[in-house]
Design a protein that fits this description.
This protein is mainly α. 53% of the residues lie in helices and 0% in strands. It has 3 helices and no strands. The mean pLDDT is 88.
Amino acid sequence: MYQSDVTQFLNDLKARKPELERKQREGRAIFWDKQLDLDELERWQQARVPQQAYVYQNEPRK
């Protein structure tokens, strides 16, 4: 059965580092696999303070 160079590389990498897939899943869970609390998200959006046009300006211009 034909396997591309990329497929061969990935299969070889997974064979050499069997923990790789587990680490990928753990990394994905940190940022992507989340359950959203829609009430909390709505409260967070309502509590947002508008940002000034130029955030580094400390005093109003004269």
